[in-house]
């Protein structure tokens, strides 16, 4: 159920009800501009990943700065964006099941919608859905470039699948999906460089083998916030699929030579208990902030450390400096921005301490 917004435009940040998802608009806009500026000289396009923000509002802001479209992981995310006016969407994932594929094909009537495949049976099912809907769907072959998650083997196996797609009158071969997700959080620059060098090389060889069979790759997509500069410089990739760059989080900050973006996303929380000396308890626990990539940081208060979370409580240790008072509002930096966003119905856009806007998170909970 959509919850009422926790704020109104014009109120001060300290008046916002908590827990609330705060977007620092100055930092957010600086991140969008920085990514556009960094990619411009390379000629590589941005297809920003909406699994991070789940918002047609943010998608359109990214596209106004030159992004060619959006990525999503789920059909329901694609629906929220297409209904919100986003015209070019790649489901950078496999979609299996007649009901989901029928929804995907229906979207192709109002937007350019592509999908990935790594199995011949998927191709058969996508083609059947496209035929039933009277549309033609672009399909990208996903290759395993080192993440060992989804994707066919690069080379002949990928070429065979691409030829199967190209042979269908209801499909169009859209190119290659070559995303190395686990490389994004490898801690040292050398580890990231080695992982992406391998990914770029197997992708390059596969592109060449496809060309030898008469198949061009309109899209060679991959890259993320942690490695986008490496893919962009490789000469192989045509599109970068970064998402977290718009917000950032504590886990990206742990990388050596972290990405060149500012922290713009925060969970605003309230000190709800000071009953134990040296401890403060916040109203933001598991249900307010994702902890899968580590506990959040307390922004701007280095003497406070978030040490544990339960369902509705976050425990802080007061290690140095003044303890927060009962009712104080504190900003938390999430460990992982994507699943934190999915806990909320609204972004509260704040500029210089004052609420400027409220944006619905339209694809919240879009798991299907």
UniProtKB/TrEMBL annotation:
Instruction: Tell me which PANTHER family the record gives.
Output: D-SERINE DEHYDRATASE (PTHR28004:SF2), ZGC:162816-RELATED (PTHR28004)
Superkingdom of this entry's organism?
Bacteria
Put simply, this protein is called DSD1 family PLP-dependent enzyme
SUPFAM superfamilies (alphabetical): PLP-binding barrel
Entry's Gene Ontology molecular function annotations:
D-serine ammonia-lyase activity
Q: Which residues form the D-serine dehydratase-like domain?
A: 264-351
Q: Signal peptide: which range, if any?
A: none
Q: Which SMART domains match?
A: D-ser_dehydrat
Record family assignment: Belongs to the DSD1 family.
CDD domains, per the entry = PLPDE_III_LS_D-TA
Source organism (scientific name): Roseicella aerolata
Enumerate the InterPro entries for this protein: Ala_racemase_N, D-amino_acid_metab_enzyme, D-ser_dehydrat-like_dom, D-ser_dehydrat-like_sf, PLP-binding_barrel
Supply the Pfam families for this chain: Ala_racemase_N, D-ser_dehydrat
One GO BP annotation here? Answer: D-serine catabolic process
């Amino acid at each position: 159920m959509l919850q009422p917004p926790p704020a109104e435009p014009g109120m001060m940040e300290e008046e916002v009800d908590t827990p609330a998802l705060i977007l620092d608009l100055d930092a957010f806009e600086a991140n969008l501009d920085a990514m556009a500026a960094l990619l411009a000289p390379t000629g590589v396009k941005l297809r920003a990943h909406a699994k991070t923000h789940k918002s047609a509002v943010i998608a359109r802001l990214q596209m106004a700065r030159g992004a060619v479209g959006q990525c999503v992981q789920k059909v329901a995310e694609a629906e929220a964006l297409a209904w919100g006016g986003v015209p070019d969407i790649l489901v950078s994932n496999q979609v299996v099941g007649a009901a989901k594929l029928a929804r995907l094909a229906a979207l192709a009537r109002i937007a350019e919608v592509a999908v990935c495949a790594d199995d011949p049976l998927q191709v058969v099912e996508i083609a059947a859905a496209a035929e039933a809907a009277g549309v033609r769907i672009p399909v990208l072959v996903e290759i395993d470039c080192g993440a060992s998650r989804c994707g066919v083997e690069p080379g002949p196996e990928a070429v065979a699948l691409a030829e199967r797609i190209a042979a269908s009158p209801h499909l169009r071969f859209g190119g290659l999906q070559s995303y190395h997700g686990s490389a994004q959080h490898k801690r040292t620059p050398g580890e990231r460089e080695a992982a992406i060098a391998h990914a770029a090389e197997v992708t390059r060889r596969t592109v060449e083998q496809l060309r030898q069979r008469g198949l061009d790759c309109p899209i060679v997509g991959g890259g993320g916030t942690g490695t986008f500069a490496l893919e962009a410089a490789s000469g192989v990739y045509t599109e970068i699929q970064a998402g977290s760059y718009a917000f950032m989080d504590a886990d990206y900050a742990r990388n050596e030579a972290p990405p060149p973006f500012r922290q713009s996303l925060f969970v605003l929380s309230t000190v709800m208990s000071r009953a134990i000396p040296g401890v403060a308890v916040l109203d933001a626990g598991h249900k307010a902030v994702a902890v899968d990539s580590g506990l959040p940081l307390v922004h701007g208060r280095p003497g406070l450390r978030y040490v544990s979370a339960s369902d509705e409580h976050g425990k802080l240790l007061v290690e140095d400096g003044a303890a927060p008072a009962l009712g104080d509002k504190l900003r938390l930096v999430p460990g992982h921005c994507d699943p934190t966003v999915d806990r909320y119905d609204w972004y509260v856009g704040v500029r210089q301490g004052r609420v400027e806007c409220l944006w619905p998170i339209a694809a919240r909970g879009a798991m299907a």
